[in-house]
Amino acid sequence: MDEEYGTVVSVVVVGATRSIDTNSLPDHATGAFPNDGNPNTISAQTLSYEFPTEPTFTGDATFARAPGIAVNGVPFEPGTGESVSCESGENFRIEALQEFFNLGLDFNNAHVQPTGKYHYHGVSQMLVDAYAADEDLVHVGFAADGFLMYYSKSGDYRPSYVLSATARSGSNCTPSGPDNTSFDLAGTSPDGTYTSDWQYSEGIGDLDECNGTTIDGQYVYVVTGGYPYISRCLNGEFTDLGPDGGGPPPGGGPPPGGGPPPG
């Protein structure tokens, strides 16, 4: 327990199961909430997870809305529930880490769901600094399939995603949320504002489709400063931590028939 920030997290391994109990309050400073882009107030949660300590690698990249939990008990949830829908039929999932829409992220690349749950959309330097040692790789979390999640201080592990070279289509497009001013996306160039702006290009970087790689004989996920920031899919057997099991393929696009709640 961190008395300064009210963090309560317990990680216990019994047999082949790692049990995590957390109130989802970080052990570091946060930005101000509510704020202009996020109307929600941080509050303690009662969350429990069970992950295998002997994960099974399948190589079958499967979308994961909430791919894991940070070592301080704060969930990793890289995607968002915000989107832009066009009268011409297109739907674009908005990325959290972009400059066009204000989603109220703080300096930890995190914000708060309507439930009060604080969660990371990208790497928190405060999280990294709190658990860093002399080694380059910092253990920052546990993935839902049981594999460990690391951050490289040197940035040596590069994602294998690139921006699409194909111009967007879409007319009379309206974002979800209070600002519903419509605009056209037809002919605009992908710049990372939307998940579908990104494409996986095998071998262009050091990491696979799920931001994973094998280091010293162990498969791990790497949290990176570039897209996808945090794994959008997992390569092991897991139970989805999100409220709706389905979702988009790892390359982008919104879940069919809707998607996760805002956040």
Sequence-ordered SSE layout with sheet pairings:
Layout: E1 9-14, E2 17-22, E3 47-52, E4 57-63, E5 68-70, E6 75-76, E7 83-86, E8 91-93, E9 110-112, E10 118-120, H1 125-131, E11 137-143, E12 148-152, E13 161-163, E14 173-175, E15 198-200, E16 212-215, E17 218-223, E18 233-236
Parallel strand pairs: 12-17
Antiparallel strand pairs: 1-2, 2-3, 4-18, 5-6, 5-11, 7-8, 7-14, 9-10, 11-12, 13-15, 16-17
Which characteristics define this entry?
263 residues; mainly beta; six-stranded mixed β-sheet; disordered C terminus
Detailed description of the structure:
- The chain is mainly β and 263 residues long.
- Helix content is 3%, strand content 30%.
- Mean pLDDT is 91; it is low at 244-262.
- The longest helix has 7 residues, at 125-131.
Strand order of the largest sheet: 6-5-11-12-17-16
Low-confidence stretches: 244-262
Number of helices: 1
- Please state the average pLDDT score: 91
Biggest sheet, in brief?
A: 6 strands, mixed
Query: Structural class per helix/strand content?
Result: mainly beta
Gap from first CA to last CA: 26 Å
N-to-C order of helices and strands: EEEEEEEEEEHEEEEEEEE
